[in-house]
Specification:
- The chain has about 100 residues and is mostly helical.
- It is about 85% helix and about 0% strand.
- The protein is flat.
- The two termini are about 15 Å apart.
Length: about 100
Amino acid sequence: MSWLILLIAGLCESGWAVGLKYAEGFSRLVPSVATALAMIASVVLLGLAVRGLPLGTAYAVWTGIGTVGTALLGMWLFGDAATPARLACIALIVCGIAGLKLAT
């Protein structure tokens, strides 16, 4: 169950990172509120996940999910570059996340 909670926490992290773009410096109310809620949810869920997982593993996986999700959403939603080098680096992060999962 801790891994599922951690996955959701990581997805919330991607959500708030993307929300920052839509909030436009917290000048738009609805995206700003949604971003703040995603931030809170992400940290609260991370706190719940570390009850059953090692802190270092949980934090690394949380940030990795957030990083990969945010990078992919940036490519999809905002036209960020999807160069082979960027995609290869994202794949390395995914391998690291999988490795941490398997090692725990």
